[in-house]
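[step 3/7] fold_predict: job queued, chain A
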Amino acid sequence: MSWELASFALLFCALAAGFRWYEHTHPSSKVLALVATLAALAALGRVAFAPLPNVKPTTDIVLLSGYALGGAPGFVVGAAGALASNLFFGQGPWTPWQMAAWGLAGVLGAALGVATGRRLGRVPLAAACFAAGLLYGAILDFSTWVTFSGEHTLGQYLAISGTALGFNIAHAVGNLLFCLAFGPAFVRALLRFRARFEVRWQPVAAAAAMGAALLVGAGALPAPAAAAGETARATAYLVRAQNADGGFGADRGQRSSQLYTAWATMGLAAAGRRPATVRRGGRTPADHLLAGARGMRDTGDIERTILALAAAGRSPRRAGGVDLVARLLGRRRSNGSFDGLVNVTAFGVLALRASGRSTRDATVRRAATWIARAQNRDGGWNFGGRGGPSGIDDTAAAVQALRAAGRPRAGAIARGAAFLVARQRADGGFPLVPGGSSNAQSTSWAVQALLAAGRDPDRVRRGGSRSPLGYLRTLVESDGSVRYSRTSRQTPVWVTAQALTALARRPFPIRAPRGR
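[step 4/7] structure written:
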């Protein structure tokens, strides 16, 4: 077998394994759309800077995508970006090598994110992008040596590398400068999506609403009779959605994950159903959460699992041989925040309160102070911090965290609640961003924040329209599942779980229920 044939056979296997890996993660439609957008951005970045020899932001986009979203999405962004951009530059035997090299950059970015808890600053991120540029160049030099060199000797490879050295250095330096310019902002945006979808954003996201234990002084109000039927049906739907391993997937019948199991656990607890009594195959949701606790490295995953275990009546300090509270405390920054992000810091406060930390705890108080200082002038909060556009979900999380930290309802909490009330849509619901369309997740978060702020969500009606709880009730299907929005027929398990916390009128965090 020739060098060329052998190398391409190995390369094909590597690419096939990468795409199979991504497919095996069963990405949702939102994750697929995000990955496709990032791949297009990577390709566009390469085309836009074509006049500058080997200077392009593509490697940065790919590595940072993997850093924020994970290995499989990062690989696909790199491989698809290379393939798409070569529709402009021309396809050839170099294409699969470029696909593999940029795909590897995405995987290495993910490994870097896991190893550092996604807490790298601007300069270390830029240094990683610089190194990725040199690695990319070395791989492409190797491809030239394999494909076009008649003599496969070390001297020949060194000669090829020496010729390409200037281009490779230009690529690495360009990566460094691009990352210094936009790297942290790009990562924050992707983490926002990841937290929204997870739904690992991941999906989505970005992720999801949280229920849990013990809101001091919040005074949860009794559920009105009008919502009792919807709450009971949604609870029954969640119970039926449980998998044989005790966990929950994004939708019924899909593979269990820590993310969706945590949301389902908190939704059940909010509705008064003890998660320990919800069993399938002899296993409970907490069993599934504990089985994956040791491998948790992401701050948001740790916080969510602490909240879910507390809601299930299990100790997060003895989670499969791991002290998740200690692991979370290790993520504190000197300014009091967690990861320098409002949403992550808010759920850090909620997780610490759920784990038994008091409002007088120094870490809780410093985190709450950081959150209060990050409030925007309009009363809302941005995912990344002060100055960015305020969002519904991030404002709702901040309001609940401040109240859980023992802050008075006057001041920052009242201004946050006023921001939410002013952004209610005519249909009674709340959007992800002001001016957008209402959805179940943002509405659920807003309801919980209003409760934490001492506002009755049934009385929050824009111009006498439907209340946010009334909007949620219109999304409950006959089988108890909850649609994401009025225009969507999708009924993910995590949306039902989040809506259930609002229908049950339970702000974060939620105490493990007694009884059944």
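[step 5/7] annotate
The first helix runs from residue 3 to 24.
Residues 211 and 266 are 5 Å apart (CA to CA).
exit 0
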